[in-house]
Amino acid sequence: MKLAITGKGGVGKTTITALLAHGLAKDGYKIFLVDADPAPNLGSALGIPEDVLEEVTPISEMLDLISERTGVRPGSGYGAMFKLNPRVDDIPDRFSITNPDGIKLLVVGTIKAAEGGCFCPENALVKRLLKHLILSSEEVLIMDMEAGIEHLGRGTIKTMDLLIIVLEPGMRSIKVAEQIKRLGTELGIEKFGAILNKVQDPKRDEKIIGDKLSILSIPILGRTESLG
Ligand SMILES: Nc1ncnc2c1ncn2[C@@H]1O[C@H](COP(=O)(O)OP(=O)(O)O)[C@@H](O)[C@H]1O
Ligand SMILES: [Mg+2]
C-alpha cells in the first residue's frame, strides 16, 4: 500500500504521517516513509536526532547521484537527453535512515511537475524511485508532501494507491481539499480519504467539514483531537 498525505499548509500532514507510521508499525507493518517536502521535517517528528538529520541530503539534491544515474547533471540546461529509466533499486537501502522503532525514512525533497513545468533529470530519478518501490503485503509506504498537489505530475502521484487529505476545522482547508480532489482526479488518482485533525468540537466540526466532504465524495478515515 502506498499512501500520500496532502492538504493545506500547517494542518498536520507531517504529524499525522508520523502518528500513522507509529500506529501501523505497532500493528506489525514495516513502514517506509518518504519526505517529499522541500523543507523536510518528518525526521524530527519521528524522533530522529537532529545531528543525524543534519547529515542527510535530499535525493533530489544529490547532484552526483542524479548525474551518474540519468546521464545529465541537474541544471545543465534544457534539451539535454537523460535516461528516463535510471537505476534506483539500491537507493532505498543506501540512503534511508531508520528511527529507533525501525521506521525507515527516505528524504526525497522537492518534487517538481514533469508536465509543462520541469522536465529534468532529478524529477525523472524521483519519479522512477517512487514507481520502483514495490512493497510486500506487510509493507506500507507513506509519502509526506508539501501543501497542495499543484507541483505534482501524473507520473509521480499515480503511483500512489490512496491520497489522504488532512483537514483542520475551517473553510480554507476545505477549499484546499476541493482543489486537491479536482486536480488529483485529473491526474488519475482514484482513491481519496480525509483525516480531520485539530478537532475541538467534534459535533460542530464534523457537521461542517463532514457535509462538505460528502458532497466531494471523500470518505472520512479518521479524526484527531486538537492537543493544544
Ligand atoms: N492535533 C493537533 N493538536 C495540536 N497541534 C497540532 C496537531 N496536529 C498538528 N499540530 C501542530 O500544528 C503544527 C503544524 O503541523 P505539521 O504536522 O507540521 O503540519 P503540516 O505538515 O501540514 O505543515 C505543528 O506545530 C504541530 O505540532
Ligand atoms: Mg509538513
Description:
By secondary structure, this protein is an alpha/beta fold. It has nine helices and eight strands. Strands 3-4-2-5-1-6-7-8 form an eight-stranded mixed sheet, with helices on both faces. Helix 9 (202-215) links the parallel strand 7 and strand 8 (220-225). The model has no long low-confidence stretch (mean pLDDT 90). It binds adenosine-5'-diphosphate (ADP) and magnesium ion. Residues 7, 9-15, 197-198, 224, 226-228 line the site of adenosine-5'-diphosphate (ADP). Adenosine-5'-diphosphate binds next to helix 1 and strand 7.
Query: What does the overall shape look like?
Result: globular
End-to-end separation in angstroms reads: 31 Å
Oligomeric state of shown chains: single chain
Strand percentage: 15-25%
Q: How many strand units?
A: 8
Elements, N to C (H/E): EHEHHHHEEHEHEHEHE
Order of the strands making up the biggest sheet: 3-4-2-5-1-6-7-8
Main β-sheet, in a few words? 8 strands, mixed
Tally the helices: 9
Helix/strand structural class: alpha/beta
Question: Whole-number radius of gyration?
Answer: 18 Å
Low-confidence stretches: none
> What share of the residues lie within helices?
25-40%
The whole-number mean of residue pLDDT values reads 90
The molecules bound to the chains, other than polymers, are: adenosine-5'-diphosphate, magnesium ion
